[in-house]
Known about the structure:
Layout: E1 10-12, H1 21-36, E2 44-47, H2 49-58, H3 65-80, E3 93-99, E4 109-113, H4 119-127, H5 130-148, H6 153-167, H7 177-195, H8 203-217, H9 221-230, E5 238-244, E6 255-260, E7 272-277, H10 283-286, E8 292-293, H11 294-300, H12 302-319, E9 323-330, E10 333-341, H13 346-358, H14 364-369, H15 373-379, E11 383-384, E12 392-395, E13 397-400, E14 403-409, H16 412-420, E15 425-429, H17 437-442, E16 445-448, H18 456-464, E17 467-470, E18 475-478, E19 483-486, E20 489-492, E21 496-500, E22 505-508, E23 513-514, H19 517-524, H20 526-531, H21 535-554, E24 558-562, H22 566-574, E25 580-584, H23 594-602, H24 606-630, E26 635-639, H25 652-660, H26 668-678, H27 690-695, H28 699-716, E27 722-727, H29 733-754, E28 762-766, H30 769-773, H31 775-778, E29 784-787, H32 789-797, H33 804-807, H34 809-815, H35 831-845, E30 850-853, H36 861-869, E31 874-877, H37 882-897
Parallel strand pairs: 14-15, 15-16, 16-17, 24-25, 24-31, 25-26, 26-27, 27-28, 28-29, 29-30, 30-31
Antiparallel strand pairs: 1-2, 2-5, 3-4, 3-5, 6-7, 6-9, 7-8, 9-10, 11-23, 12-22, 13-17, 14-21, 18-19, 19-20, 21-22
Helix pairs in contact: 4-5, 5-7, 6-7, 11-12, 13-21, 15-37, 21-37, 22-24, 23-24, 24-28, 25-26, 28-29, 36-37
Bound molecules: phosphoenolpyruvate and magnesium ion (MG).
Residues 582, 584, 642, 767, 788-791, 854-855 line the site of phosphoenolpyruvate (PEP).
Amino acid sequence: MATPRPAQLVYDFADGSRDMVDLLGGKGANLAEMTRLGLPVPPGFTITTEACRHYLAQGEEPQSLRVQVTMALRRLEDKLGRRLGDVQDPLLVSVRSGAKFSMPGMMETVLNVGLNDYSVKGLAEAANDERFAWDSYRRLVQMFGKTVLGIPGERFEDELEATKQRAGAASDVELPVDALRELVETFKAIVAEHTGREFPQDPREQLDMAMRAVFDSWNTERARLYRRRERIPHDLGTAVNVCAMVFGNMGETSGTGVCFTRDPATGKPGAYGDYLVNAQGEDVVAGIRNTLSLEDFARLDPASHAELVQIMRRLETHYRDLCDIEFTVERGKLWMLQTRVGKRTAAAAFRIATQLMDERVITPDEALSRVTGAQLGQLLFPQFDPTAERELLTKGMAASPGAASGKLVFSSPTAVEWAARGEQVILCRRETTPDDLPGMVAATGVLTSRGGKTSHAAVVARGMGRTCVCGAEELDVDVAARTVTVRGRVLREGDVISIDGATGEVFAGQLPVVASPVVNYLENGLEAALAEADEETAELVRSVDRVLRHADRTRRLRVRANADTAEDAARARRMGAEGIGLCRTEHMFLGDRRVLIERLVLAETADEQEQVLAELLPLQRADFVELLEAMDGLPVTIRLLDPPLHEFLPDRTALAVKIARGEGEEGDERLLAAVERLHEANPMLGLRGVRLGLLVPGLYAMQVRAIAEAAAERRTAGGDPRVEIMVPLVGSVMELHLIRDEIDGIIAGIEEAAGVQLAIPIGTMIELPRAALTARRIAEAAEFFSFGTNDLTQTTWGFSRDDVEASIFAAYLEKGVFTVSPFESLDRDGVGALIRTAVAAGRETRTDLKLGVCGEHGGDPDSVHFFHDAGLDYVSCSPFRVPVARLEAGRAAVHTEAGGHL
Ligand code: PEP
Ligand code: MG
């Protein structure tokens, strides 16, 4: 019987392609793709993610892997005519991890595998360069020691520093061969001391150990944490790329570089990159020596540069996007070591998308899919003046956008104290905890040296709209000494710094801030924004305009705004809102009008109550007239009063204390009695929403009258009012029937008196699980549903929305219960399931039922895609987020159209 053929676990670069990213990882798939294109990629092979998954599950490699690696290695050796670690002219390889998604928290690279005490001499002879050979060997022991054997990197770096000092060398290229030889011995001694065994001399053992270390690196705490945060599944595994070494450290005609086909920071067309002569691997990005620009590289090595430029163009045409490339020149010969679609800033994303569209490389739909609402959101924050002089101290993660300058403080109480005396402060901590909350509230910006984009600092800062840079690992924060040290420079409490939450950059001193040109465009139109813009900014603004207009043409979802005042409504309209999805009327009862509610609560007779309501009526009517005028011709959904009445009354304890101290005024005792009567243990679940309407006589009637009279007044004045009345917190269709009976009567009366037909739709919010589950019945009495996903999330999870974000969520995010707050981004599995149920059931009863959402999620990019898929008609969000929602609604439509493939 024939033995079944084992699965293919190793692929030569020549046999793969970019479609095989699941199996070969991003790096392997792209190396294969470049090989297929005939680009100069050193030969090599990729060990699949499947081999990794087997190894992690079984604790050992699949049986056939050893043999498959041997065969691949032999093919490689045959092709190059050299053998791994041979004593004469040895073949050396690099071993690099490469998962489907780039994961900076994982093991990266071991170079020069195959060198040992003998082959180093062979390499020296073959290259005719002893210094190069020993430099390569010391790099191997150092990288192998650190990434494979887990020895702290500083052990090697400290020795390297000490050797440089002894030799009087300013940089590592100046180290003479003897010093390097000595360094190798010292490094090997460090390995022996740390691991209890000698540095492995067998080349194949080095390769196998490096491969296993890459597999193991998938499950390090750091990698797991990174995946949790970035929502990358844990079961993908990583591939391992084994590639014949080419050397950038073979003297002055060699070097290594990184480049981008366009500037990833600004989106400026034209290649952009750094090159370092006589260097290898990470030297370029490590910033240990000054790099050269591509223009310098062109002067230095015109032939290699010309070839690189041609390849860059080829790759960009092939990938139809900005490519990020690593290359090496070995004695005048160019080699490509890596490429991928490059990361970019928000501004670059918009500019590049429209550039590629104009170059007819991508379609307008694709251009739309290449930018995100989050990127547009970033462009709306004020920015540091790009023309100002700046001194970069370090860079961390861009956690919460904005541009903030202030004095450094190191504790929450200091932040609060200094802010109270009018200082702008930046709270700098190693990481923040819930105890730091007061300081974060007081600070203009938050800076931490640890933690990622979903660390406590980041989450809380974003929630509060506070600028935040986190995980700036170069910062050494000493809270006790009230100092922070960065690259040897000590900053003290009170020193001024500036942080850019959109780029993660940290600058010394105060930087001037300018308003966002994109906001200028949104508020005042294209012409006005272009009039003030320099060339680069003008291109950005034009790009945003074009992409947004395409989104508007493409989207199915309408976008409305949550706005309570005529001023907000006007701004929302300028931002592109197509109506108001939620006007919260409670905001109209604050300020001077609070006393009227107080009187309403204290009224002892029906007459007194009516009197107060009669006083409120003209005020409310005037509010609505203004609002309808600002949104003339567009729908305006006005919600009847929702919050419990005690929210309008004085605080219970404060009032009791005042009375106990004998400082009470006339009527305070009565007021206290009313406050006590209305006190609730769980006000969010108490006398609010439609329950108020049913239990407080005349209140909703007054509001409905004000709305209908305002609409009639606008109509008589020649306007086009399109008001809709919305009832909050309904749980049963019966509640809605009862309220509707009253509303319908009032509207009919006003229509008759004014001699106009108002046609005011009446609908309800869906904010309770019961409402969603009984939507079929509720739709009998509602002409529209608007999902109040704030309350629906609160009631579905049983989380008090005002309390949990601060107290529980930081821990829940850390423990991975969820990766993002369900109040920020819709919980599709739970709340989303209720929404889908309600949509289907509601439309069963009423096919033309209008469906929208007005919770915070209406402006959240990810949630907008859900609402599109769920078949809603519109989303409603705060005016500032309207452009983001427009963009994402367009992207969602394009995505659906393309079957999810764009
Ligand atoms: C909601 O619950 O989602 C909603 C929009 O209402 P509010 O936030 O005012 O409770
Ligand atoms: Mg609500």
